[in-house]
Specification:
This protein is of the alpha/beta class and 324 residues long. It has 17 helices and 6 strands. The protein is globular.
Amino acid sequence: MSEKNNKPKIIVILGPTASGKSDVAVELALRLRSGQAKKFGTKGAEVISADSRQVYKGLDIGTGKITKKEMKGIKHHLLDVISPRKQFSASDFVRITNDAIAQIVISGKIPIVCGGTGFYIDALLGEKQLAEAPPNEKLRAQLEKKSVEELFKILKKLDPERAKNIDAKNGRRLVRAIEICEALGPNSASRFAQATLGKKVPSKYDVIKIGIKTEEKELKNRINKRIEKWFKMGLLKEVRDLHQKGLSWKRMSELGLEYKIVANHLQKKISKEEMIERMQIETWQYAKRQKQWFKDKNIIWLPSKINLVEKKVKRFLEGGPTRI
């Protein structure tokens, strides 16, 4: 048996927002739980969410978090694990996900990692390296009280070179860069970023990556319909309730475009019409960035047809080629 085949097998279902990833992951898990399970020597499958915001408690509608009904009895991991007041990094994701994969494998099941946060998936699979700086909860608590502008100024003093290349509006990445500098010394974030640029390490898993392919016109339509559905489900109330429970407008703006835009409307900075229009435009722009991230990453792109996905997974689990 080859070294590759000794590694735990995991399935990754990825793609842009609103492409239907979660539905595919659940249907695949259901099939692996049924008659196919014994054939492949598995007791079924469990899903691990690879979404940077679905980890937060209370961020349900605006993140498209799967509901209990939609799970159809399939166990899901990495949902509702932390307060939205706290920071959650790629390092946190990799650590917790590795633990979840180990538990799933020990139970005789197949892990299905499903999500659209490409950086998290790449970090998990060794395609992006992370600095060996452990989470500093005390420091994070202090930094969470600061605006992204203040965080950027702190990073600029600690590591001017990293400040030149980081997304100055991404509070989570700013906090992590500062955390690295505090743990490993000034300028360490940029040194680490430069040292690991394009560098990969062998994955500890035997992986098949399936991307859910959606035509541009259809994806735009799905995005707009989903936004319309979210408002009917009570997105405005969700954001209002989060704020009333103590989540600041500043923190809300760091938790993704949906929460930022709705927060701006609730503060009367934009009208209802402008809120919906901005959300449609910015969500589509986000989907395009996701598609760009996933480009040329050894992904098998398939439409959201479970029979096609199952066919590829069957070959993978049997140890055969998946590209044919």
